[in-house]
Amino acid sequence: MATTADFRNGLCIKHNNDLWQIVEFQHVKPGKGPAFVRTKLKNLTNGRRLDNTFTAGVKIDVVRIENRKHQFLYADGDTYHFMNTDNYEQIFIDKGLINAPQFLKEGENADILFHAEEEKILGCDLPASVVLEVTYTEPGIKGDTATNALKPSTVETGATVNVPLFINIGDKIKIDTRKGAYSERVKS
Fold this sequence. Notes:
The protein is an all-beta fold. The protein has strands at 2-3, 12-15, 18-28, 36-43, 49-55, 59-62, 65-76, 79-84, 90-94, 109-115, 120-125, 129-137, 150-155, 160-164, 172-176, 181-186.
């Protein structure tokens, strides 16, 4: 058993008979009344977010979560197949557990969250950014770099991303997987 003094970002706890991850926390000591901890929690089973306040010193159940590197093999409908890079064991993950499945490219590595005691898959996180090649976009015109205008483009995974006007077919771009947005053009 731990207490609120052990809170840190990323800590997984059991709260209201469900698994939650602490996204953000703040210890508050008001001039009047007892101290408390204000938290933002993310549900690991359905992704819901919750603001919650704990009284300082209250006991909490800490859950051990492990991140394991896996390599994406292929998608079969809504089922995604991954391989553990250490022992070559294959696992199958539902599309709903992946944070940005539209940016997964075959051979790409991802972190899969496991509930350590139950060996249950809780989710799959892609790297913060991925580099993909543009397969289709309207042609760019020389000199179209002064404005912040965007145009739609399709990348090699089939996802659509808005890019600046100067991006052409064959360019490699960096995409922020958390926002699903263009970051920068990658020079070859």
